[in-house]
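Batch job 17 of 40 flagged for manual review because the log was empty.
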Amino acid sequence: MRLILSLIALMALTSAPAMATEEPPHRVIERVGDIEIREYAPMIVAEVEVSGDQTSASNRGFRPLAGYIFGDNAPREEIAMTAPVTARASEGQKIDMTAPVTAAEAGEGRWTVAFVMPDSWSMDTLPAPNDPDVTLREVDARRVVAIQFNGGRNARWFAQKEAELLAFVAERGFDTVGEPTFAYYSPPWIPTAFRRNEIWVEIAAS
């Protein structure tokens, strides 16, 4: 059953343009090559904390979240799939963003994997998760610096892009807030070279 739910959720990420998958509302303030400074509106996320390296934790967290949006809730109501699926190091799991070794290579850790809820839902209207590990949380409006790139979840490739992002952040003199967020937009059957990924770093409001 979990495999079926995961496959259905992944298929939702490959909808035709007329049925495009919803992404979190945001405004692009500035674009420099593959890097964007964005302002995100407040949002609600369904999230679960799991252990493992970056890749295995993302896969492990995906299943209960897919279950939630496909009816494992009270009153068994379906919620539209959104993109991206995000993962970030859980509080207390500090990751050296400038090191050449990423979390995927660093062994076990705690990760928070999340789906953004469609903008049409509120905390009052969202169904309650049946799985006690799945929680709903409101996220305040925030400003992030994001770098977009294509490819698989290769640790060295992610580290290279992370270094590019952090160099830009340092050059602009931004103060970062919290740990980076890894955002995955594409299902596994999309050819590796065309999979869309992003890394976000929240910055303090100026």
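Reviewer: the log was empty due to a logging misconfiguration, but the result itself is present. The domain at 2-203 is CATH 3.20.80.10 (Multidrug-efflux Transporter 1 Regulator Bmrr; Chain A). Unflagging and moving on to job 18.
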